[in-house]
Design a protein that fits this description.
Layout: E1 10-14, H1 17-20, H2 28-33, H3 50-63, E2 68-72, H4 75-78, H5 87-102, E3 106-112, H6 118-122, H7 131-146, E4 152-157, H8 161-168, H9 172-189, H10 205-226, E5 232-237, E6 240-243, H11 249-258, H12 260-266, E7 272-276, E8 279-283, E9 286-288, H13 307-319, E10 323-328, H14 335-354, E11 359-365, E12 384-386, E13 393-395, H15 397-410
Parallel strand pairs: 1-2, 1-11, 2-3, 3-4, 4-5, 5-7, 6-8, 7-10, 10-11
Antiparallel strand pairs: 8-9, 12-13
């Protein structure tokens, strides 16, 4: 079993709106899923039907002895048309927060987990000059309704994902399809540039990151104006980047491109969210994939229990703010690997905590096998599998392992 963490350590699990709710028809991602051609393997459709079954999901979280649930609110539902806010959707997400409280769970709420309203994308998304202002206005509306009831506000999810995917080295046809998807969306919407936050063109990444960074500041300020004491930050995707040999040139270039601006931005926040799944090993020539005989995850990199702890230490050494692990998990069909991976990674994280790094909590990704963006339903990270016809949630062994850890930690 895992060594004892501090008594106030948060034990959580995460989902994201578009990936589980279903029928997010006013969103940019839904629009892109149905474009022709599209980079998305399949459309999200009803996903896990969590919009209707959110109480079932929250019951699962509480049933695992956890203390918090991280979920996202969908901008496209709350503001389906520019400047028009849907009070019924604000009621819905407030009801989710209230049900968390009823079940003894803190709510960790992500205000934007990649997806945005289709009208926002049609304006150019984060390339639009008024994008930060529009996002700030939306954050303010949501904060007015729920900020006084939640434990943490995460403005944005993985604003550096585009850079990371470039370093992971997706096949060139994927990037060609991304370009074709955006062209098809622009044509169908009748606009010059229909743009998403997670389907990116390399030549636009810098400008989009500028918009997202300004959006974070606007969102944070809007939330703080409503709830000054609420901890606000964003979540950053990080690998544990290590060097094989003595040439760190490539590793350090990757860190500079993927992390530096965001680590600097986080210095003005209350915490930084760390999202970690992989260890990337670099030699002088670049990324080193798992060798023959090494156990690899679904992305082809070695399964490494040290990865999360390494990422957390790196972030804290650069930001100096408390760390909340907002995502961590394992992409693999074999759940027995996940059963072993969770306690091993937590034990390594415990070592970091004992060395004085202020880690606020751990959030596992994800509660349910869900819609994993361009990969559709092929990639499975869940503690529960889902029958996408009946929407039955079926526990995996890893859910029981995590529940036992949480129970031991809280007893």
């Amino acid at each position: 079993m895992v060594s004892k963490f501090p008594a106030d350590f948060i034990w959580a699990v995460a989902t994201a709106g578009h990936q589980v709710e279903g029928n997010n028809v006013n969103s940019d991602t839904w629009f892109a899923e149905h474009a022709k051609p599209t980079v998305f393997k399949e459309p999200s459709l009803r996903a896990c039907n969590s919009f209707e079954l959110y109480r079932t999901d929250i019951d699962l979280v509480a049933g695992m002895n956890l203390s918090a649930y991280r979920f996202s609110v969908e901008w496209a539902r709350i503001e389906p048309s520019e400047g028009i806010f849907d009070e019924a959707m604000l009621d819905h997400y407030e009801a989710m927060v209230d049900y968390c409280h009823e079940k003894g769970l803190k709510a960790i709420v992500t205000f934007n987990h990649f997806t945005a309203p289709s009208w926002f994308a049609a304006k150019g998304g984060w390339l639009a000059p008024d994008a930060p202002e529009l996002f700030g206005r939306y954050c303010g509306k949501v904060a007015e309704r729920i900020a006084h009831k939640i434990a943490f506000a995460v403005t944005l999810n993985e604003p550096n994902l585009g850079r990371l995917l470039k370093w992971i080295g997706l096949p060139s046809f994927v990037h060609d399809l991304e370009r074709a998807t955006l062209e098809a969306c622009s044509l169908q919407a009748g606009v010059p540039k229909y743009r998403l936050a997670n389907v990116l063109l390399e030549e636009e990444m810098g400008d989009i990151e500028d918009g997202i960074a300004a959006g974070h500041v606007a969102g944070r300020n809007a939330i703080k104006a409503v709830a000054p004491e609420l901890p606000v930050g964003f979540s950053l995707a990080l690998m544990h980047d290590i060097v094989i040999g003595d040439d760190a040139t490539v590793r350090d270039r990757k860190r500079a491109e993927c992390y530096e601006r965001w680590l600097e931005l986080a210095k003005n926040d209350d915490f930084i969210g760390v999202q970690n799944y992989e260890t990337h090993r670099f030699d002088a020539n670049g990324l080193v994939k798992a060798a023959a005989g090494e156990q690899a995850n679904g992305m082809g990199t070695v399964i490494d229990a040290d990865s999360l702890a390494g990422a957390v230490e790196y972030v804290y050494s650069n930001v100096g703010k408390p760390v909340l692990v907002t995502e961590h998990g394992l992409l693999h069909e074999d759940d027995s690997l996940r059963e072993a991976f969770i306690p091993a990674a937590l034990e390594k994280l415990h070592e970091v905590v004992t060395r004085g790094v202020p880690v606020l909590g751990y959030t596992h990704w994800t509660l349910l096998d869900n819609f994993e963006w361009i990969f559709g339903y092929e990639f499975r990270y869940g503690l529960f599998s889902v029958n996408h016809e009946t929407f039955e949630r079926i526990p995996k062994g890893s859910s029981k392992v995590y529940a036992a850890i949480a129970l031991a930690q809280r007893s």
